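quick one before i forget lol
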Amino acid sequence: MKVMKFGGSSVGSPDSLKQVKQIIEKEQEPVIVVVSALGGVTDRLLLAADFALNSNPGYKSLLEEIITRHEEIIQQMILSPDNRDEVTGKIQQLFDDLRNILRGVFLIGDLSQKTSDKIVSYGERLSSLIISRVIEGAELYDPTQFIKTSLQFRNHLPDLSRCNQLIRQTFSEMPPPQVAVVPGFIASSNENGDITNLGRGGSDYTAAIIAAAMNASVLEIWTDVDGFMTADPRIINSAYVIEELSFIEAIELSNFGAKVIYPPTIFPVYHKNIPIRVKNTFSPECEGTLIRNIAPNPNGQIIKGISSINDTALITIQGLGMVGVIGVNKRIFSALADNGISVFIVSQASSENSTSIGVRTQDAPTAQKVLNREFEHEIAMGSINEIIIEDELATIAIVGQNMKHVPGIAGKFFGALGR
């Protein structure tokens, strides 16, 4: 059994859906298919919610645009009148519910996280319903019954132990269909059953959690590119597809800007040693990139790829009062974590008198405010200086687990930048 995930670009139009249908129906073994919302729909839902919150009646036209797009796909892709009528009825009920939620936000001028999560879930609920009728022999499953989350540091994170148990119950205690369709991204709270989600890119994560729980032979991520590239082809014309990556190399490239798969996707399948194959929906004959457990090899390829994060801000906490004081970094990272801010790079002076951290530019003002509050006393006393932000920066990473066997790579890297 394999798990296949199709992203928004793969299910965004009738032509792309025809391609998805062909790919899935060629499979000879049972498959679990995880799907995203139609391309761009999640952003439109978020914008509609924002319009409603700010008393902008334009949310209605956004909703009508979303409705029209789904209706057009139903008309072109579901040819049986009976099936079309059934899907249209269910879709209309979902849109009626969504319309009522948005109208409520518009009238009361309030949008809680709970309501926002519910609104954004409609993208996957709508797409999966349509796709389950487009694919021959497919059955639709509700992920809120087996993808469970717990609240940690203001984020809903999957309870993997609970997910594993419920997924096995769902798919193992009954004869599986040839094709099981699961909306990605959507989850439900362990605490109260409310609809939650796994964050942007969470459909990849859904697929990985299911693949790990079911001990799948492979997790296939179908997207609109041929796989991981050696560099961004928009910048480097000579970039080419990387045939094979280790799990560690893939997560490093993903973490530093290669937007091929959502970085947390790798964790569940890594521990089960389940390979990931990244393939192009529009060029299915291309082998793509295989991600698997590869041991470091002194004779192997040294550098697999170059990746970058363009919206980087560097925050520096500095002061002679930090030297020799235990727990300063703990306070930095605890304060940021409590406010949902992720740090992706850290540098500390050997004397301990400064620590610099890299965050997304959009998080920098909040991070500065949080750290100024955390170290308010030390700043007032002069033992720590004012928190410094440098923005409009980029983070560049060269990735390859065999670099550790070859001296001089760092010198070559910094020498190239210096020139």
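fyi The chain has two domains: 2-292, 305-399.
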